[in-house]
Specification:
The chain is 33% helix and 18% strand. It has 350 residues and is an alpha/beta fold. Helix 3 links the parallel strand 4 and strand 5. It is globular and about 50 Å long. It binds N-carbamoyl-L-aspartate (NCD) and zinc ion. N-carbamoyl-L-aspartate binds next to loops.
Length: 350
């Protein structure tokens, strides 16, 4: 069985930097025509000049036979000023500004501590149509980790929409029924991305037979009812919910340790994983809109014209891939995937 769809885009990915780029850029470039690249490097990508340099480092790792465009983002800090937004917009290579509440996730230490201090910067973004990409979790240690997204919607996002009704917002990697409802009922200026892992797993996956660091990411996996809400909105074909893998590789030893990093790596088989999730709920016909049309429409970019083919041809996901002088453990390591994306490359395993 074959499934031919417009070539997809990934509207949220971590490609990292340095040697790590060599492993993961070819994988994302094989799967996707374009990708919104997260700026949470160390130090973070806070200026257009840094984004330009980072873009060049990414492009240097794109295989010669693959067409791939990285769409760059800036990391919003308490000090991002409207001038930086103007430079970003003029560059034509920056396509979003990322809000990490300080302390919310990996490398978010330089994130925003007080959003109300950024009103003129957000006004400048609204004015030129540059979207705000939101990690939607409160960082308050008093709020249960499983509730941090839902509380963020009430405490932060709702007032933000009231203050900046024209600001275009992508609520990234949503994980709860509350976020589904919020975005569905919000104006057309608000959209959401959904990862493959939040469509495939509920929080039991974190504790199956023992603690599973490779299923730990932020926002953390939630209860089954939330996974079902995510699947249902994708299955409904709603155009403001689209693909963002949040593929977030960490070297194995950074995850398999007493205090492991958050992040699930899915770039090796992103489309195959999404196809698996949608097929299981009878919504494979919604894959193309979700993966290849809706994101481009929201970001006001042309849809891709090339196509890709997924084939029913079972294969076993390698136990690990080479990464940053060591290895990264991919989602589904050692398991069989029934779908295979036809493409030019296979990747070297360790
Ligand atoms: C991401 C990372 O590792 O950079 N981790 C994650 O669990 N998703 C950061 C993020 O997007 O929250
Ligand atoms: Zn992310």
């Amino acid at each position: 069985m074959h499934l031919k769809i417009t070539r997809p885009d990934d509207w949220h990915v971590h490609l990292r930097d340095g040697d790590a780029l060599k492993s993961v850029v070819p994988m994302t470039a094989r799967q996707f025509a374009r990708a919104i690249v997260m700026p949470n490097l160390v130090p973070p990508v806070t200026t257009t000049a840094q984004a330009q340099a980072y873009r060049a480092r990414i492009l240097a790792e794109v295989p010669g036979d693959v067409a791939f465009t990285p769409l760059m983002t800036l990391y919003l800090t308490d000090n991002t000023d409207p001038g930086e937004i103007e430079r970003a917009q003029a560059s034509r290579i920056v396509h979003g500004v990322k809000l990490y509440p300080a302390g919310a996730t990996t490398n978010s230490e330089s994130g925003v501590t007080d959003l109300t201090g950024l009103d003129t910067t957000l006004d400048a973004m609204a004015e030129c149509g540059l979207p705000l990409l939101v990690h939607g979790e409160v960082t308050d240690a008093g709020v249960d980790i499983f509730d941090r997204e839902a509380v963020f919607l009430e405490r932060v996002l709702s007032p933000l929409l009231d203050r900046h009704p024209k600001l275009r917002i992508v609520l990234e990697h949503i994980t709860t029924e509350q976020a589904v409802r919020f975005v569905r009922d919000a104006p057309d200026t608000v959209a959401a991305t959904i990862t493959a892992h939040h469509l495939l797993y509920n929080r039991n996956a974190l504790f199956r037979g023992g603690i599973r660091p490779h299923h730990y990411c932020l926002p953390i996996l939630k209860r089954e009812q939330h996974r079902e809400a995510l699947l249902n909105i994708v299955a409904s074909g709603h155009p403001r919910f689209f693909l963002g893998t949040d593929s977030a590789p960490h070297e194995r030893s950074a995850k398999e340790t007493a205090c492991g990093c958050a992040g699930i790596f899915t770039a090796h088989a992103a489309l195959e994983l999404y196809a698996t999730a949608l097929e299981a709920c009878g919504a494979l016909d919604r894959l193309e809109g979700f993966a290849s049309h809706f994101g481009a429409d929201f970001y006001r970019m042309p849809r891709n014209t090339a196509s890709v083919t997924l084939m029913k041809d079972p294969w076993t996901v390698p136990d690990r891939y080479r990464f940053d002088g060591g290895a990264v453990i991919p989602l589904g390591a050692g398991e069989t995937l029934t779908w295979r994306l036809l493409g030019p490359e296979s990747h070297s395993t360790v």
